[in-house]
Specification:
By secondary structure, this protein is α/β, with parallel strands linked by helices. The chain is built from 15 helices and 17 strands. It has three domains: 2-154 and 370-449, FAD/NAD(P)-binding domain (3-Layer(bba) Sandwich), CATH 3.50.50; 165-227 and 309-365, 3-Layer(bba) Sandwich (FAD/NAD(P)-binding domain), CATH 3.50.50.60; 239-307, no CATH class. The strands form four sheets. Strands 3-2-1-7-17-16 form a six-stranded mixed β-sheet, with helices on one face. A five-stranded parallel β-sheet has the order 8-15-9-10-11. It has a three-stranded antiparallel β-sheet with strand order 4-5-6. The longest helix has 17 residues, at 91-107. The radius of gyration is 23 Å and the shape is globular.
């Protein structure tokens, strides 16, 4: 009997489990889904209970299956929930959908499949050429033929300043989803959010909803907020034109040219960027490493602004809060963070060569997930790095792996046992962290694990 262990029960692990259950066939199979959080199917992203935390993709495109992207909207309709196909639905509802999708797959599984959800944490692992032993915190050992690392987002790194004593202060929060963020910060507290991306938007939506009275400041190197969705803009694929290009500057010129063309035809840049999305992983794979580094240094922030957009509902609130002074978005590089005798944070940052400072009651870290696996604090990851089972990719964006998910350890050879998908493949595929990409990877990886690759 083939034994497959999935470590991580968030969206990636759940979608992989569902695809394994749906495609398993008649051969005996044992699947273990290991998740240290009690809410399998949700992960960090979909565990929020706040109705103001919305999906960033319309309902019609959020189905769990690459061959049935309308499945989520169909589920909403069957539940008689009041959302149309263009709606940006609360993420907590999407978490319910993922959980029910898994439960349905379990209920319909054939008798030859054993499926176990294990509420535990994987803390160590030994691997040889054909098998692995996954050691759980409880002491249980899972002998597995294949192990899939379905890691989601990790805690962000601390801000890069010399004196790190501020990280010990009671109102510094590294984890924006920690319950203490909502219990220790008083309504009158001034708050500095480090980072101006989607995580910062989530926090700001919460503070708006609860009527937070203190000033909120958001700081990032460029001070850029995510762009706003504007639905209905499409543009035909021009990937064939881009195929021969292996320089970022050439790709950028081509994209700008097509944006001008789109605007002249009544569309806009969103349609152009969206037309690239199915091809982004291959474009990334074809780039030399030097070009990838150039992109990371000079263009990635602007790409993220354009690519990872917010619903209009969120954008309206952000505009209102900036207009009435409740929210201030700042541009600058952090220089120093200290805690003064009164317990407040004094933050020094530099903008265009000019040094500025601010005082706030609290700081929340929204820098973004730590992608350097050699710096993660997970016992399992530390062990796997030390044993040479995993290593960083060349850009320190995730785990070194083939595009099909096979992990490349310190020997440089693809593993016959270890695989991954989702966030950990960012350095390999770049476009790999959202449901449309994860569902495609989950289906392909399931077929690979079941020896059913086409």
């Amino acid at each position: 009997m083939k034994k497959i262990t999935i470590i991580g029960g968030g969206a990636s692990g759940t979608l992989l489990a569902v695809n394994l259950l749906k495609n398993a066939g008649d051969a005996p199979l044992a699947i273990n889904l290991v998740e240290k959080r009690s809410a399998v199917g949700r992960g960090v992203a979909y565990s929020t209970t706040a109705g103001v935390h919305l999906l960033n993709v319309p309902a019609a495109k959020m189905g769990a299956f690459s061959n049935d992207i309308g499945n989520f909207y169909q589920w909403l309709t069957e539940k008689d929930l009041p959302y149309d196909d263009h709606a940006f639905v609360p993420r907590k509802i999407y978490g319910n959908y993922l959980r029910e999708t898994l439960e349905q797959a379990i209920a319909n599984k054939p008798k030859n499949i054993q499926f176990n959800i294990i509420d535990d944490e994987a803390v160590d692992m030994s691997v040889d050429d054909s098998q692995s032993q996954v050691i759980l915190k409880s002491g249980e050992i899972l002998v597995s033929d294949k192990v899939v690392l379905a890691f989601g987002n990790s805690l962000p790194p601390h801000p890069n300043v010399e004196n790190m004593d501020f990280t010990l202060a009671p109102k510094y929060f590294r984890d924006q989803w920690s319950p203490e963020v909502y219990t220790k910060i008083e309504k009158s507290d001034s708050v500095l959010i480090i980072g101006t991306g989607l995580s910062m938007v989530d926090l700001t939506m919460h503070y708006h909803a609860v009527g937070h009275g203190g000033k909120i400041k958001a700081l990032s190197t460029r001070g850029l907020l995510p762009a706003v969705h504007s639905l209905g803009h499409t543009y035909p694929s021009f990937y064939d034109e881009l195929k021969p290009m292996t320089r970022i500057t050439d790709l950028l010129k081509a994209v700008r040219r097509h944006i001008k063309k789109a605007e002249s035809e009544g569309s806009n840049w969103r349609g152009v960027i969206d037309s690239l999305r199915p091809h982004t992983p291959q474009i990334w794979l074809d780039l030399p490493i030097a070009e990838k580094r150039y992109f990371m240094q000079h263009l990635s922030r602007y790409w993220n602004v354009a690519r990872h957009r917010v619903p209009m509902e969120a954008a309206v609130i952000l505009d209102e809060m900036q207009a009435d002074g409740r929210l201030e978005v700042l541009k600058g590089r952090l220089q120093k963070i200290e805690v003064n005798p009164s317990g407040k944070f004094e933050t020094v940052f530099k903008t265009d060569g000019t040094e500025n400072s601010m005082e706030t009651d609290a700081i929340i870290n929204c820098i973004g997930s730590q992608s350097n696996f050699e710096k993660l604090e997970s016992p399992l990851v530390k062990s796997m790095v030390a044993r040479g089972h995993i290593r960083n990719d060349e850009l320190n964006l995730g785990i070194a792996a083939l595009p099909n998910g096979r992990i490349i350890g310190k020997t440089g050879a693809p593993s016959n046992v270890l695989l991954t998908l989702g966030t950990a493949l960012k350095g390999t595929l770049w476009e790999t962290t959202a449901i449309p990409e994860i569902r495609t990877q989950a289906q392909a990886l399931a077929l690979q694990l079941l020896d059913k690759e086409s």
